[in-house]
Amino acid sequence: MSDIPCPIAHWAQAEPERLAILTPDTCCYTYSAYHDAVGAVAAQLSGDGVQPGDVVAVSSPSPAEQILAMMGIMRLGAIAAPVALRIPSAARSDRLRRIGARRLLTEGGIDIAGPPRATNAVRMPTDHPATIVFTSGTSGEPKAALHAYGNHYHAAQAANRNMPLAPGDRWLLSLGLHHVAGIAILFRCMVAGAAIVAPDVGGGIVEAVERYGVTHCSLVSTQLYRLLGDSAAHSALAGMKGILLGGGAISEALIRRAVARGWPIHTSYGLTETAAQIAATEPGAPLDTLITSGRPLQPGTIRIAEDGEILVRGDGLFQGYLRDGRVERPEVEEGWFPTGDLGRFDSEGRLHVGGRKDNRFVCGGENIQPEGLERALCRVPGVVDALVVPIEDAEFGHIPVAFLRMDGGPIPSPDKLRTHLVGELERFSIPKRFLAWPKDIDDDVSKADRAAFARRARGSL
């Protein structure tokens, strides 16, 4: 077993007055105060009977409180399990049961008061279980992914080498901590000695960037789409140092628009199981690179199997899925983890992600990969996002139906769309119907729920 100095404790000793967390109220935290608050949470939990290795769930509308709770849980040696606020109570109870949570911390459930603590004796075991994060569940039941402290720490180090982050920088916590990409922001900042900007839930990104002097942020496709339609965002985001795009496929149309705005974007590839990104583009990458997922952040951590599946390994790879009290991690030879994603490397070593193996369907005896259709649709003028789902059909088995999100204008006629696609797609794969992007489907998440879109498509027939 190896261990490392706690990064929070390190900065509390090295630069105690440097800002660590900025909040909407006047209660901002220096690294010294951050360290003391984390220690107080750990002491409170220990006094309440929580032991190292216990699972403690966290669900609070206060991002700052969530940060302190999660770091205090890890400081104690217990396992932090962030739970989304928006999931139904029955689903929440089921998740807590599945992971064997000892207790649930909600708003006001932690006490950060306590005496200052020594800053030179806190070390964190890198192989100690630290977090449980549920996968998106868009292709099945959400899985409980267990990460060790070192998984997050080493992933943050690799990310910071590619996308420089330094003391004085400020990263906006624009993603929920129940997503691994949200946790990644905490680790990148404390490893680098940068500050986390923890705004109010529901607060605007542009407002936060301007108010707090944000230098970095992470965005998913929906957030990027909305910001591109916000005139106030144009200059605000152009002045930042880095904007990391991830959480699923980002359409080429959106990337082109962001580049035209002069925004310093990075595209990436990662998953819950790799503690966020494992490949990304470098600063100042040209457009032809940005429409890929970039290169592996560490050599030898990504390869392509014979059937085209992306396999990953490395220091950031999770410990496994919690199932019935056991930890299980599917592997192929030599520790490679099968992601379920299809991809390829180009001649420059850049990763191109083709889509999910389990999204593939058969139409009239031919295989169709919906993500390929979506990329072609996003090259139609005016289309900024597309999603293709299979619908059962008596003659063909399944037929493709496309949802289109337009850049303000109406959906082109089916004949115009098909004329554009004929030159790019085989005729059997061209969608049979084109529908408007639903306004009432919750797309405020990192990955679109294809099952929800399929239900909507069947209902439109």
Task: Characterise the protein shown here.
The chain is built from 14 helices and 28 strands. It has a 7-stranded mixed sheet, sandwiched between helices. Strands 8-9-20-21 form a 4-stranded antiparallel sheet. The chain has a 4-stranded antiparallel sheet with strand order 18-19-22-23. The protein is α/β, with parallel strands linked by helices. 30% of the residues lie in helices and 27% in strands. It has a domain at 360-460: GMP Synthetase, Chain A, domain 3. The model has no long low-confidence stretch (mean pLDDT 90).
Give the % helix.
25-40%
Supply Rg. Answer: 22 Å
CATH topology of the domain at 360-460: GMP Synthetase, Chain A, domain 3
Low-pLDDT windows of residues: none
End-to-end distance: 58 Å
**Main sheet properties:** 7 strands, mixed
Instruction: Calculate the mean pLDDT score and round it.
Output: 90
Any idea what the CATH superfamily of the domain at 360-460 is called?
Answer: ANL, C-terminal domain
Structural class: alpha/beta
At the first level of CATH, what is the class of the domain at 360-460? Alpha Beta
Q: What proportion strand?
A: 25-35%
How do the strands line up in the largest sheet?
3-2-11-10-12-13-14
CATH level-two architecture of the domain at 360-460: 2-Layer Sandwich
Shape, per Cα inertia axes: globular
Count of DSSP H/I helices: 14
